[in-house]
Input
Amino acid sequence: MAIVINGSGTVTGLAVGGLPDGTVDAGTLATNSVDSAELIDGSIDTAHIAANQITTAIMPTGSVLQVVVGELNSTAATSSTSFVDSGLSASITPRSTASKILVTFNAGGINKSADNNQCISFKLIRGSTHVHGGANVFFTGTGFSISGIDAGFTHLDSPSTASAVTYKITFKARIAASVSMATGGEASQGARLILTEIAG
Output
């Protein structure tokens, strides 16, 4: 078919592939003329993605968005039978109100000081709100200065905010005699609070 330049400014008779290589450049393409339907599967590789273009807003549900770790490497002790602050906390600013926060707590070096039955209880607080009952460590029978005991728990929380939130661990003794955690201050016997934001 002959190529015809019409009086209306259109061209007919041009076969697919009829233009020489390099004829059409980016300036020739109309704005928004190339959409996802024109892209071949796998045509965009990592080298063609600009830095910081994969944002949390486009991450699929269940993706890990950020991780924050709080540590306590000095002994926390109490004789209180009411929950008190242990000094272990961590703060996180969720990227979305739909995010969930997976809270992981673990502590080593848990001891009691008195020669009696005892229990140390842990509780998770978000801000000033109790969000999880935590864990209990029971010391049965006599004998004290028991060391090397570990405790921990996980809790999936829904803070429903994109503002900064602080989680902390409180603890108490069942009877009014000293209990402690992170005894010795060594990393292996310390306590950690790990906050993992999960896309909702």
